Amino acid sequence: MKIIAADVIVTSPDRNFVTLKLTTDDGLTGLGDATLNGRELSVVAYLREHVVPLLIGIDAHRIEDTWQFLYRSAYWRRGPVTMAAIAAVDVALWDIKAKAAGMPLYQLLGGASRTGLLAYGHASGKSNEELFDSVREHQEQGYRAIRVQTGVPGLKSIYGIASNATFEANTGVRYDHEPAQRGARPAEEDWDTRSYLRHVPTVFEAVRNEFGPELPLLHDGHHRMTPIQAAKLGKSLEPYDLFWLEDVTPAENPEALRLVRQHTTTPLAIGEIFNTVWDYQQIIREQLIDYVRSAVTHTGGITHLKKILDYASQYQIKSGMHGPTDISPVGMAAAMHLGLAIHNFGIQEYMRHGDKTNAVFQQSFTWTDGMLHPGDKPGIGVDLDVDEAGRYPYETAYLPYNRLADGTVHDW
Ligand code: GCO
Ligand code: MG
Q1: Among 90, 152, 170, 384, which lies 20 to 30 A Cα-Cα from 196?
Q2: For residue 394, is it within any domain?
Q3: Are residues 258 and 303 in the same domain?
Q4: Cβ-based burial of 283 (10 A; exposed 0-12, middle 13-18, buried ≥19)
């Protein structure tokens, strides 16, 4: 079964997506997600210029061999662009193999280990009132686990807060569902860690008082704290029993989590901007985290993320795969198949894609009582309507960035 065509499809229905479509000589097709938010075209070039020519003629069944070939033959290993490109090839090959077998992909990964995947959504608000409404809205949509992000007094616009009126007016989508803004330059947001550290525990106290002790609550620090600040936050949130506290310190230095871990029993999650097992090696071995946040899309695909998660399982560390809107429906489907099959599944992030996106990508997954299931169509269960995709050409878009009050650039 040979690859005879490899097409890189760029489309921007509600946001930019990059998809690789492989076709075999017996007429099967497979899809892989290669979307790298705000840097999409770098992966397009990597694929079109350097990978597509190597794929024509290869045996589509040889997934592990193709992975090792693309990873090792480049010499320049790792990094988000390379690993997103390899991921797209890997997932497209798994899609093809599962279609050839006539089975949903999770069957090839060992079969279902559970009936569905617990998923969490993003509630947010500038004020507690707005936040409570957002939590309730998510509960009405079926969510049984909820991430809570709050505005901070004195800060105009910060990561993860939905009520950004300018953004919504410009884009027609809620900010928490889509932080990347179309336009020639990144939007500037503001930040003050001391105000944040003072305010966040009061919000979690209010949320627990309003919604009770049962509801699993999560929070994302988005890499903005120093280790000692992160330790303080973890400690001050302990009474509110978080499911996890995410990305507390910058990801370049994972061993910073040692200090955080020494000070708090709040469970820690990290990894959405990691891209290989090497980023995780030390923090898994030293048991510095509780959840692996990588997406299939940014971590070399199913083949490589499964290895990371198998390693993590030896230390009772679970999956918490990244699932914001910048993971395309193809990347989400791959995550669902992997999550259904592995033993150490923890939770799946799930934000809804917009209607235009859902018209480009026809999907087989189901959402029932807060649980996702990838469906039982052969392959990963996603089709791409090329004509519909063609209606939405690429649009320049950037993620925002932060400045402190004195103008210093800060982690966003
Ligand atoms: C999350 C993430 C996202 C990222 C986004 C960047 O936890 O879902 O932090 O909100 O900011 O994916 O592209
Ligand atoms: Mg995050």
Answers
A1: 170
A2: no
A3: yes
A4: buried
Compute the distance between CA of residue 379 and CA of residue 171 in angstroms, rounded to an integer: 33
Query: For residue 157, what pLDDT band results from cuts at 50, 70 and 90?
Result: confident
* Rounded CA separation 376/26 (Å): 22
Q: Over the stretch 198-234, which tens digit does the pLDDT of each residue have?
A: 999 999 999 999 999 999 999 999 999 999 999 999 9
Please tell me the distance between residue 323's alpha carbon and the centre of ligand 1 in angstroms: 8
Ligand 1 site: residues with CB under 6 angstroms?
A: 37, 179, 220, 222, 272, 322, 324, 326, 349, 399
The atom number, within ligand 1, closest to the CA of 122 reads 8
Unique residue bearing structure tokens 């061999």: 65
Helix (H, G, I), strand (E, B) or coil at 207: helix
Residue 393, domain member (yes or no):
no
Whole-model pTM above 0.90?
Answer: yes
Range of the domain at 61: 3-103
> Average model confidence (pLDDT) for the chain?
96
Categorize the per-residue pLDDT at 235 as very low, low, confident or very high, splitting at 50, 70 and 90. very high
Ligand 1 centre and the CA of 253: distance in Å? Answer: 19
Q: Which residue has the tokens 């996106």?
A: 357
pLDDT at 95 over 90: yes
317 falls within a domain: yes
